[in-house]
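Workshop exercise sheet. Pairs work together: one partner reads the sequence aloud, the other fills in the structure field after running the prediction. Swap roles for the next sheet.
Pair: D.N. / O.F.
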Amino acid sequence: MYWNGHMSTAGWILSALWTVIIIALVVAGIVWLISALGNRENRGPTEEGSGASSREILDRRLASGELSVEQYKQLRETIGDPAPAASGTGPPRPASAPG
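Structure field:
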């Protein structure tokens, strides 16, 4: 590998390759660490009562199609939330919504 006190061409190539690999691993580790810390901070508070209410969750599930209207009504009764007086079939609609 040495020729008159200097590395051969293969030695230089391997040295450069290992340097690039080590730098790439360090950069990837830093990016992963920043990403993991960012995700932890964006989770929000975990205290009880600070998240969405059960009614809001039901409304969202009905809007996304996860629940039928009958399931929605049954679950609202289960959580003790009376049905809306206007339509009785789901969450209130915005004033700009057709129908």
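Discussion prompt: Residues 9-41 form the longest helix (33 residues). What would you look at next?
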